[in-house]
Write a structure and sequence with these properties.
7 helices; alpha/beta; 203 residues; single chain
């Protein structure tokens, strides 16, 4: 990975299980499908797992840390960063705030599927928006605990998976940290990696 190439020790969090199940939505509501992972539970568990990794590394004598997350991982990194004061840098790539707005405006296939499920459950889009609004794990609720000075964001201006407007909302909530704004979408950002993104992330 990009950090190992620079001689930086890296721990990567991999979690088993499905966040998106074709048999149901992110947040099951009335679903009793055991394969569907509750979205809020998933978010909390990722943050707890991240903190457990940090505690383990501290027990091994490591004293300096950084956190990085991409897309949904970036939103989860916001939740963890406030609990890791030792973190020297928090790198958030294509992360956004206001998850309910993301779900209602994202064109990502599985996310759009979930939106259609919500609309069907609640009768119309407005009622679905109201139902989704009080998400405790929304990054906007944690942004106040994250150091602006220690945070960097990589943002994409043509993103419809994590809508660009939601990326800017998180940027504002984080106190306008240092940011690299790239004119591409959620997936073509990879093409810009050799041309500035890599330097911005590891510098």
């Amino acid at each position: 990975n990009v950090f190992a190439e620079q001689g930086i020790n890296t721990a990567i969090l991999l979690r088993k299980g499905k966040l998106v199940s074709w048999g149901g939505p992110y947040r099951p509501l009335k679903s009793e499908n055991p394969d569907v992972v509750d979205f809020e539970d998933y978010q909390y568990n990722v943050v707890k797992d991240t903190l457990n990794i940090v505690d383990y590394l501290k027990s091994q004598g490591m004293k300096e840390f950084g956190l990085m997350g991409i897309s949904l991982g970036g939103m989860q990194a916001v939740g963890a960063a406030g609990f890791v004061p030792e973190s020297k840098i928090n790198i958030l790539v294509m992360a956004g705030g206001d998850i309910s707005e993301m779900i209602m405006n994202s064109t990502e296939g599985p996310v759009d599927e979930y939106k259609q499920f919500l609309i069907k459950e609640y009768g119309d889009e407005q009622e679905a928006r109201i139902a989704m609004a009080p998400l405790e794990t929304d990054p906007l609720n944690f942004a106040r605990y994250v150091s602006t000075e220690k945070t960097r964001m990589v943002m994409t201006t043509k993103d419809t998976a994590v809508p660009t407007s939601c990326q800017w909302r998180l940027y504002d909530a984080l106190g306008k940290p240092k940011a690299l704004v790239v004119p591409c979408n959620h997936y073509t950002l990879a093409l810009y990696y050799p041309f500035g993104v890599k330097t911005f992330v590891v510098d």
